[in-house]
Amino acid sequence: MTESNYLQGSCLCGGVRYRAALPVAHASHCYCTMCQKQHGAAAGSYANVASAGFVVEAGAELITEYASSDHGRRGFCRACGSTLFWRSTESPDRIAITLGTLEPEYAGPVEREWFVENKPAWLPLK
Question: Which parts of the sequence belong to the CENP-V/GFA domain (predicted)?
């Protein structure tokens, strides 16, 4: 697989490194309160890719998953706390990787916004 065929990323401490095969089905900002709390930000930002193309290249033992709902699982590095992905047990063929962990930064468009009714009023205007 060539570099142009996948996204790659890592956690803050560098202990976890991964790659995810393209294409990205869509990228999104999720304003649900669970994403806000986990990310400590206005939204969780994700690229939705095929689970079959997601490979942890280093640090698999550092990844912990938290069951944030009946169907949602949030993966993070237990050493530094970086949020790495969100996945649904109802759609095991897909995984949503966090845009902020990608290297280089994600260059594609963000096409979707989820739970906009929870979008914080303190976000800056365009």
Answer: 7-115
